[in-house]
């Protein structure tokens, strides 16, 4: 199990010295920065100073259901460094990170990507860090605000643009625009046909979404055909929309919900 350390002390205290590899999430802004926390399947260690109530911290972080959680104060025995950790403590869509190098090779390098249902923008930031210009479309303003802050934190705000709109009504991007369309855990069947027309001919699609069977897990959702694909359904839809499927894969989340991942190219 991966171990991740976060340091909840103020930025000034963190800069003076922190446990090697620890990521700084000042407690006073933790709610605004929560979108940058690590995935739920990690062993999380939260480091606090004497000003923070450990019980309150534990109660808050337990809401995220990490695989394990340890909340403690910084000890005199802890070895401290000033060097910042590399990368991020969160991860983008694993399937996107798996296929992005091939996409860039086929595309001639990073260019323009559209992320539909972008949430807090983690996948946008990942693409922007590789040199892509990324537009994210999201209907929840709170998530957009978190994404904007996260983009600034990772210094890619010059290559990311967030658009707030009702995704189930329209897409504010002209057809045949992006070189890459990324969709992760978003499905609105009535607008799916229009969505698949957005990439240019020769452009690429990376789509990850829930499969039938989620309703039988402890989580229980999505619970209807409106929220998940049947097995083989997305492949057939893409074939009819003029796509060639390059990779199709099924995985399972730690909470047992099944996902389908498809990497495809629009060929007509």
UniProtKB/TrEMBL annotation:
Q: Which domain of life is it from?
A: Eukaryota
Domain named Rhodanese is located at: 4-31
Q: Which InterPro entries match?
A: Rhodanese-like_dom (IPR001763), Rhodanese-like_dom_sf (IPR036873), SAM-dependent_MTases_sf (IPR029063)
Gene3D superfamilies on file: Rhodanese-like domain, Vaccinia Virus protein VP39
Protein name stated in the entry: Rhodanese domain-containing protein
The organism encoding this protein is Trypanosoma cruzi (strain CL Brener)
């Amino acid at each position: 199990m991966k171990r991740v350390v976060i340091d909840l002390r103020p930025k000034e205290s963190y800069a003076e010295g922190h446990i090697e590899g620890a990521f700084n999430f000042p407690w006073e802004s933790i709610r605004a920065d929560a979108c940058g926390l690590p995935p739920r399947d990690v062993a999380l260690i939260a480091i606090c100073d004497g000003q923070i109530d450990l019980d309150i911290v534990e109660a808050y972080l337990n809401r995220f259901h990490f695989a394990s959680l340890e909340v403690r104060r910084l000890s005199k025995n802890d070895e401290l460094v000033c060097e910042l950790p590399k990368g991020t403590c969160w991860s983008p869509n694993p399937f996107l990170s798996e296929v992005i190098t091939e996409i860039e090779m086929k595309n001639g390098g990073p260019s323009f990507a559209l992320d539909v249902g972008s949430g807090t923008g983690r996948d946008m930031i990942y693409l922007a860090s590789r040199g892509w210009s990324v537009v994210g479309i999201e209907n929840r303003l709170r998530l957009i605000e978190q994404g904007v802050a996260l983009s600034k934190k990772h210094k890619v705000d010059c290559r990311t643009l967030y658009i707030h709109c009702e995704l189930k009504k329209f897409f504010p991007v002209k057809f045949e625009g992006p070189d890459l369309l990324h969709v992760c855990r978003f499905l609105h069947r009535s607008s799916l046909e229009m969505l698949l027309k957005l990439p240019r001919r020769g452009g690429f699609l990376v789509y990850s979404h829930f499969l039938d069977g989620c309703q039988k897990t402890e989580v229980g959702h999505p619970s209807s055909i409106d929220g998940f694909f049947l097995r083989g359904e997305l492949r057939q839809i893409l074939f009819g929309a003029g796509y060639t499927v390059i990779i199709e894969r099924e995985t399972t989340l730690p909470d047992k919900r099944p996902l389908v991942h498809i990497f495809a190219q629009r060929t007509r």
